[in-house]
Amino acid sequence: MSAAPTPVPSSTSRPASASAASGAMPKGKARRPRGRLGEHLLRVYTWLILLWLVAPIISMIVFSFNDTHSKQNNNWQGFTLTWWKRIGAIPDLTTALENSLTIALLSTLIATVLGTMIGMAIGKHAFRGKGAVNLLLFANIAAPEVVLGASLLSLFITLGIPRGYLTILIAHAMFNIAYVAVVVSTRLASYDLSLEEAARDLGAGPFATFRLVTLPIIFPGVMSGALLAFSLSIDEYIMTQFNAGGTLTFPLWVFGATRVGVPPQVNVMATIIFMGGVLLAVLGATIGRGRRTRRPADDTAGAPA
Amino acid sequence: MTADEGPASAADAVGDARSVSAQVSTTVPTGGTGDAPPAIELVGVAKEYMSRRGAVTAVETIDLRIAEGEFFSLLGPSGCGKTTTLRMIGGFEEPSRGQILLHGQDVTSVPPNKRDVNLVFQSYALFPHLDVAGNVAFGLKRKGVARGQVRRRVGEILDLVELGALADRRPRELSGGQQQRVALARALVNRPRALLLDEPLGALDLKLRQTMQIELKRIQREVGITFVYVTHDQSEALTMSDRIAVMNKGQIEQLASPRELYERPRTRFVAGFIGTSNVLRRSVRTVTTDGTGPIAILDAGADERVIVPVHSGLGGVVTGSVVELTVRPEKINMTAARPEGDVCVLRGRVTEVVYLGTNTTYTVFTAGGDEITVFWQNSADANDLAGRGDEVWLSWREDHSYALAPSGADPAAAEAPTEPVATAG
Ligand SMILES: Nc1ncnc2c1ncn2[C@@H]1O[C@H](COP(=O)(O)OP(=O)(O)OP(=O)(O)O)[C@@H](O)[C@H]1O
Ligand SMILES: [Mg+2]
């Protein structure tokens, strides 16, 4: 789960909007005075925690530049760009990474669409069996992956489906759906259903209502659900191991390599994945902020329904 | 007639033929209550909600006609079915029985996005992800109005509600009153044929509410659109409405102008709901006729006299039957000596005196056992009229007695509006 820090786009952009709001409202809340010592302690403490969180990541990045000649890559030998240049030098590893990336993308896509639909159903409506659906989702999240993986495997065997890329994809999409659904339904907890009625009232049909009102409002939830799904999928090991057959994914390859020594290319790839995650988070935040400040006339799609 | 008919109209004629036709359709003079169909008509409309424990009747049966350009209020206590009625007009609930017509067209099962009315929600329901201008432009864009048009009309309507300076604020950056006006603008900008408002001022404090009442009335006069206004606040309804339907338990108890409601409340419920009112319950001694029509002389003590005109809405008033009559507190005279002349007279003792600045409220316990409230204007010569414990005479003109009908639906509600509807300008 270290690949992407599962950022929530809206939370990153919240300070901006909050300050805008406070500028508009009467000044009710004055800043509470705090002791100087307390402030220093808080600062030190905060930095320590941050350091703890990023230390493994920094080490991973640093060792992707390590000029190592042994099979083990854990003693600093000097700076080199060799591994970055020769990132594709190990064909099996490259294939494994490709598998991981495409599976992560596809399973995220599937899980985001289906999970959002489930999340909207349980977040917005009261229906018979809602409790059961909720329970099912939480069971899916809470169940040990060993159990899920093993039972899925026996199901595939029973159905006679050969293990490989497809079964990994099915497994990943399956456990990702629950995460997306829960994140989206949480986002809908404070959602006012009359917003949709207002959209209908103003001439929007059901689909336009979803596109112009519901989706933009739940979008941060959908995004964080999708990022969570992606990061869960890309480093998933246990269930993948059960259902992979002969196919290798990035985590499976790396785990297999630990016995003989992890090549620096792994660090390079992990760094790239991490950077991708950071980029996505930053992108999400800027898009979120952009929506806030864009000109009103361009805010909703102008095309007639 | 509409507020946005300005110098820009000429430019429209060149630029956007479609919007001109839309404009014409809202400005066609309807000739008041002539033979044009009513803006809104409800025929035998009823609504039952299905819940786990069976059907809940929200609206019993409602027949009602609202004229073009009218400011019409649905007034009643909590749970009487006001919101349900409004939502049925807006298309958000389908009636269990009956028909809804907009301008003579049956829209009973037409979805809200295809109805030419707009609803202002009690919670405002402003889109949090759009700024003020984006919220207001929403409906126009759905209709495919051209960009330049949208910008101009949004600007105009925001000026009308005095929010032009806040066009790029988000809803959460606005005060309650400002949000309320955005909600209003968002609905009005579409030039709907009728605007439905569900307690739009409910969330505002008293002072702002009073300002907004005047504001709403001004806007309605300027745009000339039919307003259907839901409220449980009688003073709000009286202030703004051309006509009011007083609802109780899913029925219309009375549908009339504010003055009519106040001076001739049809039932005890209406009398109690609109203003303060005294209700006397007496049996009939005799029914005779005076210069103006039939009158009933009711039971009263020695030297007392209680008379009520028998109006056409009343049935079965004969000797021995029981009649409830109402008389408004400000119509009652209070004197130390018994007044002369053909007036209603009761004797009583003052039990409470409450000084309220411009007037004083007296509570008088009558010889017949009724508690009567009297409002007395505090003028230079009328102070200290009576104190607690004083014996007084109460008197009022016979035609200020008004006999109440038993509770139930107002049979006159379905009739076409009799009041000439206030025209714009
Ligand atoms: N969706 C629903 N399901 C079941 N019963 C409902 C539903 N909506 C309203 N009711 C019931 O119908 C009746 C009328 O409700 P309505 O909302 O129309 O009242 P109202 O006059 O608007 O009251 P208020 O002034 O409190 O808003 C109430 O008894 C209410 O409990
Ligand atoms: Mg209501």
What features would you highlight for this structure?
heterodimer; A: 305 residues; mainly alpha; MetI-like fold; 2 domains; 12 helices; globular; disordered C terminus; B: 425 residues; alpha+beta; Rossmann fold; OB fold (Dihydrolipoamide Acetyltransferase, E2P); 5-stranded antiparallel β-sheet; 20 strands; 24% helix; disordered N terminus; binds adenosine-5'-triphosphate; binds magnesium ion
Describe the structure.
The complex is a heterodimer of chains A (305) and B (425). Chain A has 305 residues and is mainly alpha-helical. Chain A has two domains: 15-63, no CATH class; 91-262, MetI-like (MetI-like fold), CATH 1.10.3720. Helix content of chain A is 70%, strand content 0%. Chain A has twelve helices and no strands. Chain A has helices spanning 9-24, 36-63, 82-85, 91-124, 130-142, 145-159, 165-187, 194-201, 206-234, 238-243, 250-257, 264-293. The longest helix of chain A is centred in the middle third of the chain and has 34 residues, at 91-124. Chain A is globular, with a radius of gyration of 23 Å. Chain A starts with 8 loop residues before the first helix and ends in a 12-residue tail after the last helix. Residues 1-28 and 293-305 of chain A have low confidence and may be disordered. Chain B is 24% helix and 32% strand. The longest helix of chain B has 18 residues, at 206-223. In chain B, helix 4 crosses helix 5 (147-160), helix 4 packs parallel to helix 6 and helix 5 crosses helix 6 (176-188). Chain B has helices at 8-15, 17-27, 82-90, 132-142, 147-160, 176-188, 206-223, 234-240, 258-263, 268-273; strands spanning 40-51, 54-66, 71-75, 97-102, 105-106, 117-120, 194-198, 226-231, 243-248, 251-256, 278-290, 293-298, 306-309, 322-327, 333-335, 343-355, 359-366, 371-377, 391-397, 402-404. In chain B, the strands form four sheets. A six-stranded mixed sheet of chain B has the order 6-7-8-3-9-10, sandwiched between helices. Chain B is an alpha+beta fold and 425 residues long. Chain B has two domains: 3-116 and 192-267 and 409-414, Rossmann fold, CATH 3.40.50; 269-404, Nucleic acid-binding proteins (OB fold (Dihydrolipoamide Acetyltransferase, E2P)). The interface between A and B is large, with 34 and 40 residues.
